[in-house]
Amino acid sequence: MPAGGSRITLKESNLKKATERVAFQGEKGAFSQEAVRKLLGERAEVIPCQRFEDVFLRLKEKEATAAVVPIENTLAGSVHENYDHLLAYDFEIRAETNVRINHHLIAPPGVRFRDIRQVYSHPVALNQCLRFFNENPQIERVPFYDTAGSVRMVMTEKRKDAAAIGSAVAAEIYGAHIVRRSLEDDRRNFTRFFLLRRPDYPKRERCASARNVEWKTTLVFSTRNTPGSLFRALSAFALRDVNLTKIESRPLRGRPWEYLFYVDFMGRVDEERVRNALGHLRELADFMRVLGCYPKGC
Amino acid sequence: MPAGGSRITLKESNLKKATERVAFQGEKGAFSQEAVRKLLGERAEVIPCQRFEDVFLRLKEKEATAAVVPIENTLAGSVHENYDHLLAYDFEIRAETNVRINHHLIAPPGVRFRDIRQVYSHPVALNQCLRFFNENPQIERVPFYDTAGSVRMVMTEKRKDAAAIGSAVAAEIYGAHIVRRSLEDDRRNFTRFFLLRRPDYPKRERCASARNVEWKTTLVFSTRNTPGSLFRALSAFALRDVNLTKIESRPLRGRPWEYLFYVDFMGRVDEERVRNALGHLRELADFMRVLGCYPKGC
Fold first, then answer.
1. Catalytic position from the list B193, B194, B221, B265
2. What ipTM goes with this model?
């Protein structure tokens, strides 16, 4: 929540609480919920979902007013599954944010570091903290479903000898305390999230901290993979000095030699040079769709 | 192993066994071991490693003659960590292969489907089989470290009421049986693996089944992100009809507006048009390195 949040009166706050319901994948306290907070503030009501597809379904069926999904991670790459859902559902990307993935050691209040004999978390999180476990051989690693779920478990079972690895939001939500911060081996672990809305939702998201916001646009297009077809497609941007910030190809299964390209660039779809670039790209591509135009994330 | 494997005499087989030691990440029976078999046959001795970095270290320290690492998955995207290691270590990609990720239900011999009350596996595998669990609510999902490790556990503990989800190789290695095949929700789940060698290792890998092998080359380059810089870099390929099969950008952390690009193209580095393209790209890029030139994978 931006600093101004404290000035919201109770009535407005309730209104806001009633109107924002945000679907995300994972348990309450997942890293996706940190993204929800950065994007919509702390008062947004969350709808935790089991699968990414459930997140999109909740938004489609209007149970959620927004969805927040991870789209790429600095270590693990792009989440192709969510690009697939973006193509299958008719939503718009309205904002982006980058969340630093910090793995904290979290335990029930009163549990001291020297009491801890077992640490629960998702295996991916456990494997990103190997230095900590090598330095502390007295502690056993125990795989669990979910980072946030492991925090909830050590709390509900009131474990005196166990901790979990999870996010700061999970510690806060479940009333646990952070015993040690940032156990992760690699600090370059960031996940980029998109905020999605149905197209009929009013366009009003702004980056709270910036007045002179830079805008980004995300689109998908496909070409036949004849030599030079990507080069020709990119001429649509290069000839108009439109600056790409991401490009990624993905082979289309079952259609040999056809590719999808995911592209992000700096610019708004209502700028003339961007309109011209998109018109030119439409001529050159077999298929093209703008997935969203949104303020550059903080 | 190609069909000709059975003609290898005992002495040759022992020699081969003695000379090929292949490092991979995961337990014995991991999907990486399926890739090892496709690339080097069943007789290669395997060196299971905890982390990807350990795999590269085993090859560097000559404990392994080869390393096999996943580089991208059709659902989960590129494994950036392994691209980072490819840049940090001086190895060559000598072959590639694509492994279909099939999640089988695996139990000790004699265990019938109706006996099964718990299914162990890595949470990522469990989450890729949600339809099966929804249709079988009597079965509890239990997270475990590793797909292959869960197969080993149900076997060593001789569980009568439990199964694991893992690969066919894991079932075979641990003497378990496959109770049900292919539980995965999405059949489009493939992982591409690279076979890596130290540069001094003789170049002799060939795709066993193909005589007229097509060749691919993988390289990494960086440019300053001025508008059109990628377009200019790609002109090196387009002007010589060199056909790209993959392109992916990755922002360089700590160096704003600089990007790494991963590119694959069809062609051998000793073809004249490819030599010319690489020479031209060297002029245009800040940095460029060929990671390998290898037969297109089967």
1. B193
2. 0.79
